[in-house]
Amino acid sequence: xxxxxxxxxxxxxxxxxxACGGNVEAPLAETPAVETPETTSVLxxxxxxxxxxxxxxxxxxxxxxxxxxxxxxxxxxxSGGKITVDSYxxxxxxxxxxxIQNQKSGQIAMTVGxxxxxxxxxxxxxxxxxxxxxIDKATAVVAEGTKARALIDQEYGNLNVKVLSIMPITYRVxxxxxxxxxxxxxxxxxxRTMENPLHMMFxxxxxxxPTPLAxxxxxxxxxxxxxxAQENPLDTIYNSKMYEQxxxxxxxxxxxxxxxxxxxxxIWNSMPPEYQALITETMVDLEKWVRETTDSSLVAFEKxxxxxxxxxxxxxxxxxxxMKEAAQPVYDEARALCGDEVIDEVLATVGQ
Length: 352
Description:
- Helices cover 44% and strands 19% of the residues.
- It is of the alpha/beta class.
């Protein structure tokens, strides 16, 4: 009887702890399964081998890193092991600026990361706020044959890098410890931003108080109250566990998050044409995988953030209109950096 009572007591305590939820971590969102395309290219058995180091800043459990593993799986199978890929997530091999420099010198073959003014000031058009109403228009902006894409290729080329793929993934949103229910509530908000001049200019334009910090310092800055808020895509907020230090998700959708896969030009030029063709073909399949998985993953991430105790706040069309009007100094600066032709083309592509 005593043993039975002890077991019942243990069970009650365990159930109580679960109900309190204080230390219960929300489950990770699962990436939907996508059918792997069949191999369509085969390299010669006596061809050279290439061991590619791929570095990026996405967390290990994120869809961003899973995308690099998907690319690794496809290219290693299709090349018969002639091309291998080792992917290093979470800025293991350096900060954004360090990855750019190390890729330029060839110490790192490939990188995946945010494309925009943090890479080159001339790419500031990728950071234009309150611009895109949907992913399709953002995709059209960087399509092959546009002036914008030519500028992208040129600026990355100046870094001794070739762009293999560039595509919009999702919007950047805001998380905060302070409720932001309209654009006016951003006034005075201490928010961490990327070390990107146009991003900072945007937050200043809507009267927030932006503080540029390295991503590696962000969690502690939120924990210690150095900043009250930050902005990132939903999956980054969840997978970096920033929800542990935040109370609100504000779907400000202020900037589109563009992702670029790039490779060192010297390494690329040393590859036989059939190797280059295989990588290019595989990138097309990777882009399809990203598009098919992202939308459903974001729904799961938002649910997990709500389950973790955060409140999701939607913005109104009126708020987006006010945001666009306030952001006009950012557009003026982008014109000075990118040129009228590119900005006019971008605005025409999105219907503005």
